[in-house]
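Q: How would the structure tokens look for this protein?
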Amino acid sequence: MILDARREKLLRHTFVDFQQLVGFLRDPLIFARAEGMYYWDIEGRRYFDAIGGIFVATLGHGHPRVLEAIRRQLEQMTFAPPLHGIADTTLDFVERLGAVAPGDLKFVKGFSGGSEAIEAAMKFARQYFKQTGHPGKYKFISRYHGYHGSTSGAMAASGTGSRKTKFEPQMPGFLKVFPPSHYRDLFSSWEECNRHAAQSFEDVIINEDPETVAGLLVEPVGNTGGIITPTAEYFRMLREICDRHNVLLIFDEIITGFGKTGSMFAAQTFGVTPDIICCGKGLSNGAVPAGAMIAREDLAEAFWGEPEDDVQFAHGHTFAGNPVACSAGMAVIDEIVEKQLDKRAMVLGERLAAGLERLSKHGVVREVRGKGILRGVELVKDTHTMAPWPELGTTLKRTSIKNGLILRVDPTWFAVAPAITATEGQVDELCALIEKSLIDALEELTCPHGDASAAL
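A: Here is the predicted structure in token form.
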């Protein structure tokens, strides 16, 4: 892409997320519009969006039902003063989201995104224990490789060292354990590995003193570790551990929520109900910033009292529960429920997984994992030594863009989560684009100066 002087100058006046601008300017990408499964850049080139922007466009870009809900709300009211009251639309949203959440998770507070929801959940947990006779409970245990957001508390809970070290020291009170994938080569089965990983949470709780631990915070499917997908037993063990030690189980469903894993929430997919769910991204289909914290009803009772009791949740955001965002969220929920798109995500996911498994013939795929339409592929140098090959991921990101494909690529894995409204043909198109991009990356790495066809 060739930039004009104005765009190049403006890029030097901003940041592109997690990218060094010098490198970005060598091969820039500026989008002009999006529709359904595709983006178009300012030069008119089309890109297949394999990750819904960044796991947000669950129904595809520009979904008519979501846009119409926003238009109607824009004509009625765009903002309600949060220090004085609440929008009637927001109450409708509370009802709708609580109706599709698992178990007795009916207490809903809307926010502007996932990071806000995570921050709220942690503050909610700490205040809850202060008001229920356990004031020393303030610590949170999460996982290495987990990512919970860019705000200070969410970052402290995250286990992605490279994204944190520039801002250290982090907030105190955050502890980490390793995800199941860290131990997989030490055990004879994935199931046994998961049992060990789950038990490590309890070991930390006991050694820290249960009266100091407020919550466990986990992604049901770990994105930044490469779509790490634990067993259902792993989550049952976490539930039992939390129950034994009076610790809140918090699911970060910012990526997994709203149909991607074959259920409205991954908690339902794995058959385990947490105490709090944090959601965002797909909640508004990417149309407006939106997020929410969903908690057990009985937990909220600790915040109920007379004004002089001063036990209300001491937290708020200007755009929390914004009526426009809530209207978008209700449209997304209604579309998924009425058309059973979560079930469709399971069907499409099986087709997608089969297509990704076919990449194994190239000898660089260690594993395909995930649930529903949310899938990940781990890349290696060869399947005998299973040695990592970070150069392959770096090259794949470049070749995928060249082939008109937007992937979530890390040096040793890539992830896909196309819209759950995709057709079977579009899933096949996606798999073909991924394979072409992988072949191109392998050719570039194995024969950078010669006849690439001889290497394959």
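Confidence is low (pLDDT under 50) at residues 450-456.

Residues 181 and 228 are 7 Å apart (CA to CA).

Upvote if useful.
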